[in-house]
Amino acid sequence: MSRTLGRTLAVLTAALLSALAPSSAYAYPDPGVVRGDIVVHDPSMVRSPTGQYLLYSTGEGLQLRTSTDRTAFGRSGSAFTTKPGWWKNYSSASDPWAPDISYRGGTYLMYYAVSSFGSNTSAIGLARSTTGRAGSWTDYGIVYTSNASSDYNAIDPNLFVDDDGSWWLSFGSWWTGIKMIRIDPSTGKQHPGDTARRALASRPTGTKAVEAPTVVKRNGSYYLFASYDTCCAGTGSTYRIKVGRATNVAGPYKDRDGVSMLQGGGTPVMESHGRYVGPGGQSVLADSDGDLLVYHYYDGQDNGTPKLGVNLLKWSGGWPVAY
């Protein structure tokens, strides 16, 4: 065999193997090792200035778990010990969902949703704390609402702060999808000088199932993570995490193939594999060793119990890949 022909065959073989082998984005790694009290839904995690991890999740007035090593988690009570009176207007159970915790200028902020399953009579609330601890939160009331006549659902909030200091809140579930409003940093509520409601992602045909947005900025680009398809059905859940990229915080967000997330696009980041069913309800935390994808999944080897999943994210060719 000639040297030229050998090189040609080697190149063709490598190309063929590359085409046949699943990309790392579709390999769907197992969650990293976590233990302790890890039965969670819709987890959101922040690292305190002292290095402790505070993880809040849906249920019981927003459950708190803490960890010193990001591996062993223990229950530490709930954000609220007294239910604000306005909750009952949006939830007969008066139990909030889907917290989004962040640390800004010495204060912990938590946006959260109050609603009932399948309804878009919903509200997003705001609470603050100086410590982030259970029972330390002061409620600041309603930030944004939707009702039966709305074409959107005001749940699953996520706060994003841009490099220029502007604050943005994304939210949404089913109906016409993911929305975004501008937030006034001085109040944590909607900016009085910008009351527009922007559309970020939707599924205009077929199922309307897209929710739980998370917005981050990396290397000059904005990324919108969202959960697609059906959650909350144990091993019958079809939840999966997808992402799109944009040059502007308000989009348009497009997937790796250039399909707009407003037209149902989205590049897969995590899907069901093995015992790990329906990953979603995600958040992203920039930690000391890289970005973390924090989510729940339903354990196929434990009767579909929702559990905590944590994976590192690497950025490959301008796209996030879980590993």
List the SSEs and their pairings.
Elements: H1 3-20, E1 35-36, E2 44-47, E3 53-57, E4 63-67, E5 72-78, E6 97-104, E7 107-114, E8 122-129, E9 138-146, E10 158-161, E11 167-171, E12 178-183, E13 198-201, E14 210-218, E15 221-228, E16 240-246, E17 267-270, E18 276-287, E19 290-299, E20 305-316, E21 319-322
Parallel strand pairs: 1-5
Antiparallel strand pairs: 2-3, 3-4, 4-5, 6-7, 7-8, 8-9, 10-11, 11-12, 12-13, 14-15, 15-16, 16-17, 18-19, 19-20, 20-21
Taken together, the total number of domains comes to 1
What sequence of helices (H) and strands (E) makes up the elements?
A: HEEEEEEEEEEEEEEEEEEEEE
How widely separated are the two ends? 40 Å
Oligomer: single chain
Q: What's the tally of helices?
A: 1
CATH class: Mainly Beta
Mean pLDDT, as a whole number? 92
Main pleated-sheet profile:
5 strands, mixed
Sequence of strands across the biggest β-sheet: 1-5-4-3-2
The residue ranges in which pLDDT falls below 50 over 5 or more consecutive positions are 1-25
In CATH, what is the homologous superfamily? Glycosyl hydrolase domain, family 43
Residues in β-strands, percent:
35-45%
CATH architecture: 5 Propeller
> How would you sum up the global shape?
globular
Calculate Rg over CA atoms. 20 Å
Counted beta strands = 21
Structural class: mainly beta
Fraction of residues in helix: under 10%
CATH third-level topology: Tachylectin-2, Chain A
